[in-house]
Amino acid sequence: LAVYSNDAWADQGGHVPPFSGLHLQVVEVAISGSVDPYFRVDLFPALTPEGFELEEAYATTLGLPANLELRAGHFLTPFGRLNTVHAHRWSFVDPPAWRPRMLSGEGLRAPGASLNLLVPMPFYLKFIGAAQQPSVPPALGEGNTTFTEDTTARYRMLYSARIEAFVPIREQAIRVSEPLAVQLAIIGVAFIVGVS
């Protein structure tokens, strides 16, 4: 159920309801499974009022040495905390005002590859780098840029990097019979270089 006090605000793209009232936005299924001991495949087909679309489809390695993980396929760009989460998993109804203006209504997703490194530390520290080929028109801000004939392939690529850490601040027992609850500081830095 979506209710807007100003219908002009409702046009945010993606899976945001385009008008007040009860309606179906999207039906999405998550299919995930290990192909063998070395690869996992994730598929996210969706049925929207416009038809069928494949939200994400990628393969992820499971057994690379040195805590490395390689992902290849069509996936959400690892930028910020919100872009990697599908809209139906948000804890709020509308996206922040900046998101549809910077990353398009559907969020930033494109075919490509990413390499992740989980650093062996006493806390969670992960480095993520990705190179993706956005669609035309580009995924960054719908309509912001059009490709011209003289645009080189290097500038059509989208490069992103992300560092994320979960650092324990303190441990405290809520009740004597329960395990310790750990309070975490979530720290992250992300940037994107590519079409603008």
Distance between the termini: 34 Å
Helix count from the secondary structure assignment = 2
Shape: globular
- Beta fraction of the residues? 35-45%
Structural class: mainly beta
Give Rg in angstroms: 19 Å
Total E-strand runs: 9
Series of H and E elements: EEEEEHEEHEE
Average pLDDT level: 75
Pick out the low-confidence regions: 137-150
In which range does the helix fraction lie?
under 10%
Largest sheet geometry:
9 strands, antiparallel
Structure description:
The longest helix is centred in the middle third of the chain and has 6 residues, at 98-103. Strands 1, 2, 3, 4, 5, 6, 7, 8 and 9 form a 9-stranded antiparallel β-sheet that branches. The protein is built from 2 helices and 9 strands. With 196 residues, the chain is mainly β. It has helices spanning 98-103, 153-156, and strands at residues 27-28, 31-36, 39-48, 51-61, 68-76, 109-118, 124-132, 158-173, 180-193. It is globular.
Features:
196 residues, mainly beta, globular
Which secondary structure elements does this structure contain, and how are they paired or packed?
Blueprint: E1 27-28, E2 31-36, E3 39-48, E4 51-61, E5 68-76, H1 98-103, E6 109-118, E7 124-132, H2 153-156, E8 158-173, E9 180-193
Antiparallel strand pairs: 1-3, 2-3, 3-4, 4-5, 5-6, 6-7, 7-8, 8-9
Entry summary:
With 196 residues, this protein is mainly beta. Helix content is 5%, strand content 44%. The chain has helices spanning 98-103, 153-156; strands at residues 27-28, 31-36, 39-48, 51-61, 68-76, 109-118, 124-132, 158-173, 180-193.
